[in-house]
Automatic annotation (TrEMBL):
Monomer. It comes from Niastella caeni. Keywords: Calcium, Hydrolase. One of its GO terms (cellular component) is cytosol. One of its GO terms (biological process) is carbohydrate metabolic process. Residues 28-273 form the Glycosyl hydrolase family 92 N-terminal domain. This is Glycoside hydrolase family 92 protein. Its cofactor is Ca(2+). It holds the Pfam family Glyco_hydro_92N. The keyword Hydrolase applies. Transmembrane segments: none annotated.
Amino acid sequence: MKKFLPYAIITILTGSFIRVNSQDLVQYVQPLAGTAPSTTTAAQKHSEAGSEKNANTIPAVGLPFGMTQWTPQTRTSETKCIPPYFYKDSLINGFRGTHWISGSCMQDYGSVTIMPVTGALRTTNFATPFSHQQEIATPAYYKVELPAYHCVTEITSTARCGMMQFTLQQDDSLYLLVMPNSDRGEGALHIDAAKGEVWGYNPVHRIYQGWGNKAGFSGYFFIQFEKVPVRTGSFSEAAVFSADSIGNQKNIGVFAGFNFKKGEQLRIRIGTSFSSVNEAKRNLRAEITTWNFNPVWESAKQSWEEALSQVQVQGNSEKDKRIFYTAMYHALQHPRLFSDVDGVYPSFAGGWPLKKLADGQYYDDFSMWDIYRAQLPLLQILQPARVNQFVSSMILKGEQGGWLPIFPCWNSFTAAMIGDHVTAFIASSWAKGIRNYDIEAAYRLMRQNAFDSPNNNDYVNGKGRRALQSYLQYGYIPMEDSVPEAFHKKEQVSRTLEYAYDDYALAIVAKGLNKTADYTVLHKRAFNYKNIFDTTVGLVRGKYSDGRWYEPFNPDKREPYITEGTPRQYTFYVPQDVAGLASLMGGAKALENSLDTLFAKNEYWHGNEPGHQIPFMYNYTASPWKTQQVVRNILSEEYSDGPGGLSGNDDAGQMSAWYIFAAIGLYPVDPVSGEHLLCSPIFDKVTLQLAGNKKLQIVCHKRSAGDAYIQQVRLNGKTYQKSFVPYANIMKGGVLDIYLQSQPSAWGTAVKARPSGLTLIK
């Protein structure tokens, strides 16, 4: 049997990371960025009140793509859209082992919290003041002073485990409270005073389809104290018991009490798992074998240095570096490692029986509607070996659940958001040559989603495309279909646009596998976007089954047939055929004018994903210089290095991945095509560390610091006329020289320089 290695070692041996650069990149990361509401112009205009104005990130301590992150906790619940930490809060009520999906408006699950309390034992009202001036937050380490308790807490981690260190600043009693964060009064804990150990679990519940039903697995934890406690017990709210076990009551926990002198320290080690307490214990034994805090911290920092150094940027602006490497930090947190050190993981869509991998890792928490656009394409460049495991995980989900999930989170079907972008992700990986998985098995599952409708029970359970029958019958989803059994109901036009893209993606795979009949049908369906484009207004619009258009037409208001946006914003979501969209509008100049109107009216909303490709669409016109101008403006206006420095939900790193691509001068408008559209980088030099010890250097040549418009491009010394760079060229490595000047130029204006699409450019 293959021997499983600790996760931190695996990432090095797979070649995913390259030797760390000598510069200290972790210093640039600001984990508090995005923990306060956005203050950007676009966020103020377009975001609805509440969570849309928050990036919803947390100061997470963990390894890239780790199973569990560790964060100070200012909110106790696992409620939807409430992250564990808000910058504006003034009280800490614990330190959480969290599975919050970074930057999301979803919910935590299977979490556990440890809270230090000094003086007398208290099991309620123990939240304590803290100051941002007394906290240090890095990707690998967090520290905060709790003045009222005269206690300093420090946290570091491995991929599946955490370590905390508590230092008392005066002689005192110290109690550690251990609590599962169940909003339902569920979960259980046991404490062994003689061994100084605590173990327990917090049951996971589904969200969206099947909302509230048990997911079939839990967040398990196993905790070891470095020292034997002098007093232990359990509690439920204010009621304290001498019993060593407690479960299925409201606000439960166990406590361990110690007597300490000033300066004395207590360290604890926490193993986590989604499989069992025993697996949590195995994970801890494999990943943390010392009681010395510093080596664990140094190892975690080294892992982040290796990850961050895959993109090395050089320039004069320290602020830009802080924003950039904070974006890298956010973009490298998910998808989440779900398998244990020995390959065990809970089966998809039910949790039981436990499964065991023969090789590799199993991942979950794919915020797919968001991350297929830029975050996963970034990883397809930087870590293709890991992407293979992502795709393999998708295939396992489809085989175990009977259907390929649309939006797999909480290791369950959700049918959250719209589209079928697991298909787009698999297709983009395969088209780029990332193929270490069973493509025939993947194709069967993708085809099932595209052609078949599940039975009613399966459909209600979140399986299959929403409103597929209407889409197949009409070539669009008519207004009469309200799309029941979906978290996002209606939104017929947005669904039509996104299904058309997914059909195009699957058509690419069908063609490559010589499935000619499927290819013919899917290729035709990729043009379904035309069916909901109203040429009389030049925008997409709701449409009834008899061909009538929805009235009234409000191009710049949120409409029921559009997902989280307006008809004008969503009109530009045709990444597979921008030239075809331009033709409907009246030609490339008409597309340019439509883009001009969007930006002139301040209707571009960067805080939501469907528009992320829009700034780069000028590359499909005779004015690519406008992409260079608009992207520069967005980088400057919609990102900063303060707590409110993100313009909307970061959504598992998508908002941050956009910044990374735009800042280095590339963006994948159509991830399946592999074409990365060029714009002007904000850094003087960028080095991408690629698989096989290859490097791509992007070098900017300027006459003055303010130069922002591309004058010419050279690839490996040869003049390069295209306004995009294919994935294959990126992965070969080399040198991309970009010469900038102060005024727009004729570079990239020729028709033959433009990116491709389904419609041939004339």
